[in-house]
Structure formats: C-alpha cells, structure tokens
Specification:
It is built from 5 helices and 10 strands, in the order H-E-E-E-E-E-E-H-H-E-H-E-E-E-H. The protein is α+β, with helices and mostly antiparallel strands and 215 residues long.
Length: 215
Amino acid sequence: MQILAFFTALLIWVGLVMWIRGTVEFRYRRQKENDHIDIKLSALKGIWKFKMSIPTIDLAWENGPQLEAKEESEAPSGEKREGFQKLRFKYFREDFFYQLFPNIPSLLREFNRVKKKFYKGIICKDFSWEIEYGHENPALTALAAGGFWSMLGYSLARMYNTVTMEDSQPRIMVKPKFKNLGFSTDLHCIFKVRIGHIMVVGLDLAWIIVRRIRG
C-alpha cells in the first residue's frame, strides 16, 4: 500500500513538473559604447524569479572568452540574493573532434532534429527590436538604414520559422538619425516554454548520446 501511495505521489509530482511553464525575458541594449544584457527567468506565476545582468564581456583569448555576470534571485518569501561570478569557456581538444569525425554528419542530423523539436516548443509572446543609426554622411545613413531593415526582416522571418510565434504584432523599427552620430539598439523578447518539453527533449538528446557510446 505504501509503495502504491509513493508511486501515485511520484506520478502527481512528475505531472505537475511537466505542466509548469517557465518564462524567459531577454533584453539587449546598446547605447553608444555601452552594452547591457538582462535575462529574467520566472515560473509559477512569479513565485520563483531569477535575474542575471551582463554588463560586459571580457574576451581574454589566451585563456578562453570570459563572461562576467551578475545574478539576482528572489525567494517566495521576498528575500533577494545577489551574486557575481566569472565564467570562462575552455576550448575543445583537437583529438575530441578526430575521434568523432566519422560520425559527425549523422550526429549533426540528429542534433538538428532535436534542436528543431526543442525550438518548436518555445512560444514567443513578445518581440520588439529598435535600431537607431546616424552618420555624418546622409547617403551612408540612408544606405545603412536599408541594410538594417533587411536584417530585422530576415531575423523576424527566422523567428517565425523556428519558434511558435504568438505575438500578433511584433515590432521592428529602424530610425535613421541624419543629424546625430552614433548607433543604438534595443532588443526585447519574452519566451514561454514548459518544463516538461525541456525534459522530453533532454531525454531524447541523452538517448542519442547513449546510443552512440554503445555503438
């Protein structure tokens, strides 16, 4: 009886976890020479919150690119915690690619399949991108504005082909500044994804890896 109750509770817990939907809010802003990235994660209608601010990216190539990040999390009690850490990315060794080389084409096909499956489970609730650019030469300003419009249009089309778009009116804007020099941009996106979808895709990816290890 106790075993049955345990498995029942386990199934209920797994079902609740699979049902939970998380929200990811991403914002990138550049004003003159200053870059700023904000990433906010939340779930359970805001009961759980996490925030990461990335003001600078230090590219120390001799040791691998280094990322400086400020973390901020909020507990259900309202208590806030802040932390600061540096993450350094190491390079893959060459022999790693040599060992995998015979299987790389088939691996890439399977990884692309899993990637498409993962992206389709992501729902975009809000998308806006604004760019301002100015040059002392008005002709170059107009030419650059046309190029930016093409880039924003292509990016929006890729979004529609990659994730599930629920934002009926995504906003893109290019503002040429004929009298003011400089470049600024503001990209803001809100995505929603179910925890269960991440778990299913993760299991699919793990099965691919296990199957390759076994040969």
